[in-house]
Amino acid sequence: MERSIRFYKNAKHEWYADIPEWAGALDELQMVEGADDLLNWIAASTGECKLLLADEHFEQAEILELVYVREENLGAGGDYILETFKGDVKNHRLWLCHVTEFVFKQLPERIYFKEISVD
């Protein structure tokens, strides 16, 4: 499965995923607990970016590894680790909520991603 998703900052500098078919609350699309830090690295000084995400490897992909599946009362979804980013060691832990399962139809063991141009 491969999908491109645009991420954007609001006026409070909070990151959100732009998933038009999401029927849940907007706050469920907010990127927190380390995911916002990753988006800051990717977008640098801009307020938006677009990522190609996949559950299978593709060329020039960065890799998020699932390290812990959260129970429903802990927010569901999973904790991932980004060992390296653009060749630099990061060992950055981040949480991706249950929206990840909505996008991928499961909680992937690995999520491959890279930045693509915003249309």
UniProtKB/TrEMBL annotation:
<protein>
    <submittedName>
        <fullName>Uncharacterized protein</fullName>
    </submittedName>
</protein>
<dbReference type="InterPro" id="IPR046562">
    <property type="entry name" value="DUF6717"/>
</dbReference>
<dbReference type="Pfam" id="PF20475">
    <property type="entry name" value="DUF6717"/>
</dbReference>
